[in-house]
Amino acid sequence: MTTENMNFGADVSHLLEIVTHALYTNKDVFLRELISNAADACDRLRYDAIQNPALIKGHQGYEIRIHTVAKERKLIVRDSGVGMTRDDLIANLGTIAKSGTKALMEQMKQAGAQGPSLIGQFGVGFYSSFMVANSVDVVSRFAGSDDVWAWSSSGNDGFNIREATDEEKSQLLSTSGTAVILKIKDDASEFLLEEKVRIVVTTYSNHISLPVYVGKDEKVAVNSASALWMKPKSEISEVDYNEFFSITSGSIGVDVPLLTAHWKAEGKIEYTALLFIPNLRPWDLYDPSRKHCVRLYVRRVFITDECGGLVYPWLRFLRGVVDSEDLPLNISRESLQQNAIVDKIRSGVAKRILGDLEKLSKNDGIAFQSFWLQFGAVVKEGLYDAPEHRDDIFKISQFYSTHSMTMTSLDDYLSRMKEGQDSIYYMSGENVENLRHSPQIEGLKQRGLEVLLFTDTIDDFWLPIVMDFKGKKFVSVTKGAIDLSKFKSESASEEENKLEKNNRSTLITFLKSHLEEWVSDVRVSDRLTDSPVCLVASDKDADLNVTRILKANQNYDAKTKPVLEINAGHPLIDQLDSMAVISTQTESLRDAADLLFDQALIIQGQPVNDPSAFAKRMANFLRRGLAA
Fold it and tell me: How confident is the model at residue 24 (pLDDT cuts 50, 70, 90)?
């Protein structure tokens, strides 16, 4: 019998060190990983057998069996799944973090074939075994093959592979499957106790949908071996839900669900859903390549967790399962993308989750606030690309505003609108506190007009599409001229400003000429009460914050110039106007004009055009001021 010695893939030694000593802090999870891999292998065989029944000829049934051999310090995990060929063992176990199912799907994608997309990651999870084992042997027979192969490694430099002995073949449960044999370390002796193994199975794998037996000849499964989502809610405890959430989210001991939604849809289409919203935001929530974590089953048979159409992208934080009664078992991944039943399920899931979130907002404000701060920006993506759910999304949407330090809904904003107000005023930017003190909203606050403060990037993209809410148009306070004349000012300075409006023509003419490279217009502002100047976009251009976002993220060059608005009643503007009436050729007036524009840029959160010149002008002004 020939034994082949092989090296692991590149950097395996370093990766093994990370996996076995740093990736997991709880040693129990190695068993969870092995059971999960075994369950995936059974799911894969069950799926493949739909197309090729010969694969399960003589098969004894799907199961996972775990037992110990204390005298030999062995823990053995066996399954009756699809098994692996020699090449599979080398490819899947010879390279850390190489997933056999991932490779399978890549091959199928290239070939245009049909098949499952399994959740197994038979790579990093498998190598967690070396947390508790000095060595690991894997014996496997691929479905439909007579060959049995044995893979062995101590987790150091490499592994060896050979044909299995008769004794090793006897470890297999059925006509196909895998046996993983761990030689347990001295400091992990607890895993040689079958009672300990039972505790781990019931803690982490109780709801694996096939039986898990602990004991070589045990007849009673340790786990429930049933689909939790198919049970009546009255028979499921909070502990059961939390355990299932941990399994589906991979957050054992780290997180519990903020909201659990469990229902059965009946009618034209039938499906059962058990979905969770986590408390903690995933680190990669805003990664464009991130997929949702909702698994699709068809009549209790796992199909895929990569069906992009099953959950809207703006609900990608959901965890759990959806089990359809109407889809065919042999449906391909490609067909799922354009399937009418999947479309209806997606819409039904969205409607239910949004409804549950609306109830949460009314019944538990603190919990809902926690949700919104974590996931609100993602949900608002639906305002952009899911118009059919826009009204329901608006019901739960929360925004900062000038009304108070707490967030508000749009309905509450409408209830506080002043008589004669037909617009919803808003300003967008990066920081809510900076927005609260923006010069562009001074005039509105002075008139008691509430301004919504948008700080999420997505806000600047749904607003041009949505346009209005319940007939009230969204109006940016940093774009175009705003007529506030019908709202009575609460400040005498505003009336003074109006009186001065026609008396700044000389200064305005000078500023238009001197700053023509940087601004498209200069005009007296209705917005300003305390600040001397501010910048706004013209009516025909994009909002200033949209331009900033596009420039920062897409190297967008709008080649547009903002409008400079001046506060006609401000003492500084009054003084500069007097200087301009005498002469527009003085160095002080030119420096003051440049500093005003730089000040407007800084307030807007933009860099000045020439930092060195700005510093020099500022120093000269300080020198002249101190000398006066």
Answer: low
Contacts of 596 (CB under 8 A, 6+ apart): 511, 532, 533, 564, 566, 576
Three state DSSP letters for 395-460: HHCCEEECCCCCCECHHHHHHCCCCCCCEEEEEECCCHHHHHCCHHHHHHHHCCCCEEEECCCCHH
Cα–Cα dist 12/329, whole Å: 38
Query: How far apart are alpha carbons 305 and 292 in whole angstroms?
Result: 8
Q: Which residues contact 265 (CB under 8 A, 6 or more apart)?
A: 271, 272, 273, 345, 348
DSSP state of 223: S
Distances (CA, A) of 441 to 45, 265, 435, 479, 606: 64, 48, 8, 12, 18
Cβ neighbourhood burial of 473 (10 Å; 0-12, 13-18, 19+) = exposed
* Three-class SS state of 80: coil
Give the number of other Cβ atoms within 10 Å of residue 193's Cβ.
Answer: 13
Burial class for 363, CB neighbours closer than 10 Å (0-12, 13-18, 19+):
exposed
Mean predicted lDDT score pLDDT of the chain: 85
For the segment 475-491, what is each residue's pLDDT rounded down to a tens digit? Answer: 999 988 888 888 887 66
- End-to-end Cα spacing for the chain: 100
Tens-place pLDDT, residues 130-157? 889 999 999 999 999 999 999 999 887 7
Q: In whole angstroms, what is the distance from residue 450 CA to residue 503 CA?
A: 30
472 burial (CB, 10 Å; 0-12 / 13-18 / 19+) is: middle
Sequence-ordered list of residues with C-beta below 8 angstroms from that of 11, at least 6 positions apart, any chain? 96
Q: How far apart are CA 116 and CA 111, in angstroms?
A: 14
Tell me which amino acid residue 253 is.
G
Please list, residue by residue across 220-237, b when 16 or more beta carbons sit within 10 angstroms of its beta carbon and e when fewer do: ebbbbbbbbbebeeeebe
475 within 8 A of 440, measured Cβ to Cβ: no
How deeply is 486 buried, as exposed, middle or buried, from its count of CB atoms within 10 A (0-12, 13-18, 19+)?
Answer: exposed
Side-chain-facing half-sphere of 487: CA atoms under 13 Å: 22
Backbone angles phi, psi at 253, to 5 degrees: 75, 0
Let me know the angle formed at the C-alpha of 87 by 83 and 88, rounded to the nearest 5 degrees.
40
Mean of the pLDDT values across residues 224-251?
84
Burial class (CB in 10 A: 0-12, 13-18, 19+), 3: exposed
Residue 283 pLDDT > 60, yes or no? yes
Question: Residue 402 is encoded by which pair of tokens?
Answer: 């000038």
- State the pLDDT at residue 98: 45
For the chain, which domains are there?
Answer: 3-214 (3.30.565.10), 228-370 (3.30.230.80), 400-627 (1.20.120.790)
Q: Check if the beta carbon of residue 47 is closer than 8 Å to that of residue 116.
A: yes
The sheet carrying 451-454 orders its strands as 400-401, 451-454, 423-428, 472-476, 468-469
Q: 160-195: per-residue pLDDT in tens?
A: 999 999 999 999 999 999 999 999 999 999 999 999
- Beta-bridge mates of residue 150: 139, 162
- The answer, yes or no, to whether residue 595 has pLDDT greater than 60, is yes
Distance in angstroms (rounded) separating the CA atoms of residues 440 and 522: 15
Q: Supply 219's token pair.
A: 């007849």
Contact indicator for 516, 599 with CB cutoff of 8 Å = no
